[in-house]
Amino acid sequence: MKTFETGAPQKIQLTVYYESQCPDSKDFIVNELQPALTLLHNYLILKLIPFGKAKSIDNTYFECQHGPTECTGNMVQSCALHVMKESGANDRKMLDYVVCEMKTEAGTTRNLWCVKKARVNENLVTSCLSSRMGTELLLRNEDLTKLVSPTFIPTITIDGIFDQGVQDSGIQDLIGTLCSYREDMPPCVQHYNLIGTE
């Protein structure tokens, strides 16, 4: 396992590029990402990029793969994640919020139920949505997504690098894929010992 000079384990940076109404994104976030972060939260830095295969028009409007409501959902999630990050929320709290959105699609209708449930400052999220900030956050997500040029959504990168083999295995078995990067992480050792006894 790679370590910093202090001896602390080096964290894996996992970035997930997804869309608010994409069935594959929902399946991955709920069934792969959430269990992986629960197990490996001390060893991961999670970055969530809601944008996917959308595209901007004149730096003002967006067209999304699953229609206008997906664009709304992407913006609601972008604003909420921004507010959460600014307030110091941890990765697990941010992912719990996104899981709520993916399961309910509340944000796709500008319903802030998941924002309220996550105890995010609703006024700040509303302000973001009704100002240029929401658009700017989506434009930033577009730029970040273009750097990867995903052909499939969701797409993952590990430590900022896209690898098709990692993508293919990570979508099906994210815990196993992440553990292959740091095999001696205690949660990975425990996870595989439990699997071996089943």
UniProtKB/TrEMBL annotation:
Single GO molecular-function term?
oxidoreductase activity, acting on a sulfur group of donors, disulfide as acceptor
Q: Which domain of life is it from?
A: Eukaryota
Keywords (alphabetical) are:
Glycoprotein
Q: Which Pfam families match?
A: GILT
The residues forming a coiled coil are none
What the entry lists under InterPro entries is as follows: Interferon-induced_GILT
Q: Which residues cross the membrane?
A: none
Q: Which family does it belong to?
A: Belongs to the GILT family.
The entry's protein name is: Gamma-interferon-inducible lysosomal thiol reductase
Organism of origin: Arctia plantaginis (Wood tiger moth)
Provide the organism lineage as a comma list. Eukaryota, Metazoa, Ecdysozoa, Arthropoda, Hexapoda
